[in-house]
Structure formats: C-alpha cells, structure tokens
C-alpha cells in the first residue's frame, strides 16, 4: 500500500483539469488499484489523498514521481517543468570520468558517496514536514525527514552517516570506502538498537576497516547522526536485489531501505534524485559544501530491440468495441505508435511489414523484455475493458484424460468413507536433510519443498480441532519432491490421508469408539477393492516415516508385481502429543502415479451376464469360539454352499451376558441366486441345513434359533 498526495502529484504533472473519478478509474484499470480516497485537513486546508496498491514487479512506480509517469502514459497528461533545477548547484557528478572497479563494488551496479559539510541547521522545512504528514509519515524534524521525503518522491533510498565520527574512529582525514563480504563472525549494533551477528557472505560497507552498515539494509549505530552533527557522508546506491533478499533472510531483518532494493531499482533518475536531496539540504544550509568522494556505475544495460508485430497485437488483444457495421474494428497503427511514445519508447516502423523495432526506456527495462510485454502495455493504455469479450469457437468438445478419471474415482472412494478433501501448500518449514531446499524462499517457514504430504495433513487436522473444535478425517492429492544419489530432482504425485478421528458405533447398544487398527486397515482394503487392485502388506522399513508412523503399527503396501506403493499405519504417539490430537489416528500415503499406471495396464475388464432370476436371502446365527477368524468360516461355507450360494455377509457380531466368555455370536446372511432358473425355497432350506451341520462339525458351533 502507498499513499499519494494529489497536491504533491500536481507539482509533477497537471491533474487540475483532469476528472478525478476518471483519473482513479484509469489508475485502477492500469494495474494500480485505488483502495481508498481520503481527505485530510493540513495547515487549515483540505488535501485529497489516495491509497494505491501497486504491483510487485513495478519498482519504478513506487513513488510520487513514478505515479506521475504512469498518469502521463495512461491519460496523456502534460508534464510540468521541473520545479527543482540542478544548475543551482556548483557541485556536479561527472559520470563519464568516474573510476570504477567491479571487484571493489561487489553486488552493487551503482554506488556514489558524497560528503556534505557546513551543516548548521539540523531541522527540516515546514512545507517538507507537511508533505510527509500528508502521506502518513510522522515528521521527526531532523535529517530523517529528508531521507523519507526523497524516498517517497523519487523511490530511491539514501543513507546518512556522521562524517566526523567516521574520520575520528578511522584516525585519518580521508574516507576510503569499500564494499566487502564478511569473512569472520562479527557483532554489529544497528541504528535500531538491536545487535546482529554478521556471518560470512554478508555484504557490508566499510570505511578504513570500520563497518558503516550492512549494505543496503541497516547502518551502524556508532556512525549515526545526532543533533550535534555538522557534516554527513551520504551513500546513494543500487544493490543486487537477490543479495539483499538473501541477507535479509539470513539476519531476519527487513527495513524500508532493503524493501526498495528487493524490488530491483533502476538508475534512470538516480542522479537527479541525488541532486534533489542535496538541494533540499541546502535550503536551510546555504553555505553547504559538497564533495564527490567515490563512484561506480556499471554500463552493461541491455539495449536490444524488441520486434512488435501489428498482426500479433490484433491476434492477442482482439477487436475493439468501437461500432463498425462493415468489419471488425482493430486498434490502429497510429494509436499503437502514440502509446509507444507515451511509454517513452523509441522505435522505428516499417509500413510494408507493419513491424515496430522498439527500444524500451531504462526505467521499464526490468518488466518489458518481450513482445508480449509490449502488447500488454498497449492493451493497458487502451483499456482492456474496451476490447470485445468473446469465447473462442471450438470444433470439438474436450475430453477427460485418464489421470482425471482415476482421481475422480479415488475421490469418490474417499468421500464414501467419510473423508474430506484437503488442500495444502507444497512449501514447508523443515529441518530434514532429505527435503529439497529453495534457493530463494519468500518466507523462512516456506524454505523447503515437502517430501511427504502427511505433516501438512496432521497440521491441518490439529488446527481444525483447535479453532472450531470439530474432528475431521481427510485426504489430499499433492506433489512431493526428492533428490536421488546423483542430486537429480524428482517430483511425483501422491495421495495421502488420515482416518479414525470420528468415533463410530459398532452396534446400537454400544458407545461410540475410535477405529481399531484392523477396521482402519479394512477401509484401505475396501478402497483398493473398489479400484480393482490387489495389494500385499509388509513390515514398514521406509525411514522418512520414522517420526510420523508408530514404529510397531505401520506397514508398507505393494502391488502384486512387488512394486512399492506406499504406507499405512497408526500415528506416532509423540507427533500426536505435540499436535494435541488423538493417538488413535491412522495415516496413509500412496504413490498416485503408480496407481494410475497399474489401472491403465488393467484397463481390460471382465463382465458376466446379470441374472434375471430373483435372489433368496437366508439368515444364520450361531455361537462360535471368538479366536476363529470369520474368513475361515466364510471360506468353508462358500465351499459347501453349492453354485447357488453367491454371497456370505456378516450382519452382526455380539458378545454379552448370554454368550459364553470365550465365544462370540455371529449372524450371517446367505444370498442364493441361479442364472438359469427360479430357486425353490425347499431346495434352499436343505442347503442351509447342510451348512449348519458343517459349521457345527468343523467349528464346534452352536446354532441359535
């Protein structure tokens, strides 16, 4: 967010005659969304302020001067003559004759240092304070006001040091500046009062071996100016944005100055801003003496031309909304040339080929690098809302790919089991050496790519319980990242989830209980059964799950061809305790790519004819030793149930006072059906009696009436 004073803006570009609503609308449509229009009373007069949300890739627009340039481009407003002139200064910066050393000024494409002496007035002008107040900055009535003013007006951050302190500590009459990387760990106290440990690879600005500042971020408290300061060393520089971001993360330190450098400043108006700063200081210090002591500026600007084709512009932007009954109306060649001029581009145009050769101005060289960028700018200036909106015509309807179909089917399986679909970021904060680290993370908590989906899922369940006190079960499709022994990166899609968070009733007369290990395992088997995949279970040996899954209650799953598929197991009790969730939860994670490939190989399905004859259902209850597995009983019944017996379902299991201690009561449902005839009840009853006899004989069961 950035506050802009319209009075301040009017000093750079003529907005008095412009319609305010139209101006705000053009800014918003041009990518600078106006969040709010404020009206402040400053010095007994009303002043209008706009709150603007600027885009991250436009560092050139983060200032009053930058917004003024945008208005010139968007609305073609008239620039005002500079209300500050450099010829008022005898002091000049001679760029052409500066000596420079690439090694001396490492990670710094532009650097100037000026000494300013004979400062007799420490205060800042009244009008300057009023301007700072209008944009939400509280004036301090010292040199900080000058720094803030230049930062707001031009977008360039300048650093001030007490020159007398530097010379006194260096025990010399000259300032010898150098930018260098730290070699040994050194303690540093910033002008914010905090102490930092500067490790190697931190870039610092030195004067005769004394550290003046962490380059581009924070100055040294020992060299800060005070009310007794009469001479300054002013540093103006543009640092490598990647280096500033890296140092800021390393020290966990971000300042207004470093925030500007991180956005990649250009040097297009830098010298003018430096002159402007010195002129401001000279207002209350007319005897001010300036001296340029060192300077460096790389001349490696990219002056390559961008080819802009009229045909490509019309193909991408389409027809305009201007009414023409004979043909579609396209943006004209003259309009495009006008927009290029308003963007401060220089160009040549071929009327034969309708192609422009465009050279982008330096202050837009970072964000306009291709033809498509220029086309976007043309659309932005013309107004994207002024083009026709229509969907492209298609000759055929799209189709759902195999991956989508499998994902859809698996999602239905998980939803049927009561799980909710979860979505998490791929970035995590991890101390695991096996995880893939990002070279340039935005946040410390997002510096690694996940090598498993489970930690984020556990975190989500914990946060849900903590915030809304609701237990949920969930699953997630997501990508995991890893490296092999040759340091080659791999990205594979997995599916993972968590079960057992919702207590269930096994019978109507019992209280709700958490899932047992075998019940959770049964849910997983049911899902693979629906997918028509056969799996085998083996002991858990995968090390990345050591801290997530219970060491004695975890298994690995394999496909029938011995391909490792994933893991299933109970949550590790330490993890459950740390996240304040139940230890009776069960985790699973499977390789979705392998599942998809296996299903693709098994795409030929076998079908059998549906029987037109009715089914007959018979229930059978008996008491049996509870150590006898139901699968064993079921297999025996199916073996002796004749071809008419097509299903054996377990309806109920009961243990109570009427049942012996070491026994259980099972109620099973027998389903009979023939594909050739209608079955007779008498015939089925004889089969059931035979099954009763076999159950009694083989399992010592007692039939219940």
TrEMBL record:
Pfam families attached to this UniProt entry: B3_4, B5, FDX-ACB, tRNA_synthFbeta
Enzyme class: ligase
Residue ranges of domain B5 in the record: 301-389
Cofactor: Mg(2+)
Localization in the cell: Plastid, Chloroplast
Keywords, ordered alphabetically: Aminoacyl-tRNA synthetase, ATP-binding, Chloroplast, Ligase, Magnesium, Metal-binding, Nucleotide-binding, Plastid, Protein biosynthesis
EC identifiers of the protein: 6.1.1.20
Main location, first listed in the record: plastid
Domain FDX-ACB: residue ranges: 611-704
Gene Ontology molecular function: any one: magnesium ion binding
Biological process annotations from GO: phenylalanyl-tRNA aminoacylation
Co-factor note (free text): Binds 2 magnesium ions per tetramer.
Superkingdom of this protein's organism: Eukaryota
Family, per entry: Belongs to the phenylalanyl-tRNA synthetase beta subunit family. Type 1 subfamily.
UniProt subunit comment: Tetramer of two alpha and two beta subunits.
Protein's UniProt name: Phenylalanine--tRNA ligase beta subunit, chloroplastic
This protein's encoding gene: syfB
């Amino acid at each position: 967010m950035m506050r802009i004073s319209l009075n301040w803006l009017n000093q750079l570009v003529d907005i008095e005659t412009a319609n305010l609503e139209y101006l705000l609308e053009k800014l918003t449509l041009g990518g600078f969304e106006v969040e709010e229009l404020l009206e402040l009373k400053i010095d007994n007069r009303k002043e209008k302020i706009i709150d603007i949300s600027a885009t991250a890739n436009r560092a050139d627009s983060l200032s009053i001067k930058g917004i003024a340039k945008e208005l010139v481009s968007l609305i073609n407003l008239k620039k005002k003559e500079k209300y500050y002139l450099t010829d008022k200064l005898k002091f000049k910066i001679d760029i052409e004759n500066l000596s420079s050393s690439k090694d001396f000024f490492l990670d710094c494409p532009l650097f100037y240092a000026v000494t300013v002496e004979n400062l007799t007035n420490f205060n800042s002008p009244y009008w300057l304070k009023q301007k700072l107040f209008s944009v939400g900055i509280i004036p301090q009535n010292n040199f900080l006001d000058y720094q803030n003013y230049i930062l707001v007006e031009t977008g360039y951050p300048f650093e001030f040091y007490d020159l007398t302190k530097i010379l006194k500590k260096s025990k010399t009459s000259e300032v010898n500046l150098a930018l260098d990387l730290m070699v040994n760990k050194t303690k540093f106290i910033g002008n914010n009062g905090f102490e930092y440990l500067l490790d190697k690879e931190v870039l610092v600005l030195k004067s005769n071996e004394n550290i003046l500042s962490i380059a581009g971020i924070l100055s040294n408290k020992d060299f800060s100016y005070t009310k007794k300061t009469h001479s300054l060393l002013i540093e103006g520089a543009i640092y490598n944005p990647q280096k500033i971001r890296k140092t800021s993360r390393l020290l966990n330190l971000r300042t207004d100055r470093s925030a500007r450098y991180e956005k990649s400043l250009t040097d297009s108006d830098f010298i003018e801003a430096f002159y402007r700063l010195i002129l401001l200081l000279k207002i209350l210090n007319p005897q001010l003496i300036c001296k340029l002591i060192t300077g460096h500026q790389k001349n490696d600007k990219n002056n390559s031309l961008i080819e802009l084709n009229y045909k490509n512009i019309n193909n991408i932007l389409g027809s305009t909304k201007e009414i023409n009954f004979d043909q579609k109306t396209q943006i004209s060649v003259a309009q495009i040339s006008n927009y290029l001029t308003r963007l401060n581009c220089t160009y040549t145009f071929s009327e034969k080929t309708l192609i422009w050769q465009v050279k982008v101005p330096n202050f837009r060289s970072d964000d306009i690098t291709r033809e498509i960028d220029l086309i976007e700018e043309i659309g932005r200036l013309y107004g994207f809302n002024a083009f026709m909106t229509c969907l492209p015509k298609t000759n055929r309807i799209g189709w759902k790919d195999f991956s989508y179909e499998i994902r859809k089917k698996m999602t239905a399986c998980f939803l049927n089991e009561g799980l909710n679909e979860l979505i998490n970021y791929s970035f995590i904060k991890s101390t695991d050496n096996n995880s893939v680290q990002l070279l340039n993370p935005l946040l410390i908590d997002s510096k690694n790519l996940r090598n498993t989906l489970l930690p984020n899922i556990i975190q989500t369940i914990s946060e849900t319980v903590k915030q809304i006190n609701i237990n949920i079960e969930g699953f997630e499709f997501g990508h995991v990242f890893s490296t092999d022994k040759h340091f080659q990166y791999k990205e594979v899609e997995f599916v993972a989830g968590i079960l057992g968070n919702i207590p269930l009733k096994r019978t109507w007369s019992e209280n709700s209980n958490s899932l047992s290990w075998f019940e959770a395992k049964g849910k997983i088997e049911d899902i693979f059964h629906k997918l028509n995949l056969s799996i085998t279970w083996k002991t858990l040996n995968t090390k990345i799950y050591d801290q997530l899954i219970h060491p004695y209650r975890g298994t690995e799953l394999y496909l029938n061809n011995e391909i490792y598929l994933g893991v299933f197991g109970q949550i590790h009790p330490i993890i459950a305790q740390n996240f304040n969730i139940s230890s009776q939860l069960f985790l699973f994670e499977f390789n979705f790519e392998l599942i998809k490939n296996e299903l693709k190989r098994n795409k030929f399905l076998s079908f059998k004819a549906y029987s037109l004859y009715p089914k007959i259902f018979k229930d059978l209850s008996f008491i049996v030793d509870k150590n006898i597995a139901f699968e064993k009983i079921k297999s025996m019944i199916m073996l002796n149930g004749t071809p008419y017996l097509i299903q054996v379902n377990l309806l109920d299991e009961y243990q109570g006072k009427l049942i012996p201690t070491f026994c259980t009561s099972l109620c099973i449902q027998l389903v009979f059906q023939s594909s050739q005839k209608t079955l007779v009840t008498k015939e089925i009853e004889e089969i059931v009696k035979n099954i009763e006899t076999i159950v009694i004989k083989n399992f010592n069961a007692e039939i219940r009436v």
